[in-house]
Design goal:
single chain; 127 residues; 3 helices
Length: 127
Amino acid sequence: MPGYTPDEKLRSQQLFKLRRQWLKDQELSPREPVCQTKPPGPIARFWASFLEPKSLWRIYTYKVYQGGMFTLMRLLIPAWVVHYCVKYHVYKRPYGIVEVKPKLFPGDTILETGEVIPDFPEVHSHH
């Protein structure tokens, strides 16, 4: 029994017709949308005028931004890198790189005080 039954054919035709009608209903007519536009509020008006091309505020804001980026990228960051390298890698001052103190062993003499480091006491354990 190949093919669809008459009920199945009728159902598929009805679904096909409904889908086609639904797609046709989704198209907007030239009269739609019917909503009236609201006048923009004070903040929206400010931003619309502020962001106009070639407006005075926009030009000066861009100039300040460019000056700040130049100062940061070409002056402050390189100066900080140079300062860091000089402070921690070039200077031989006490606040530079902390050097490791020399190791002290029993019997060594501390140069500043002349004190001799005593030997470790002998500990006898049963382990």
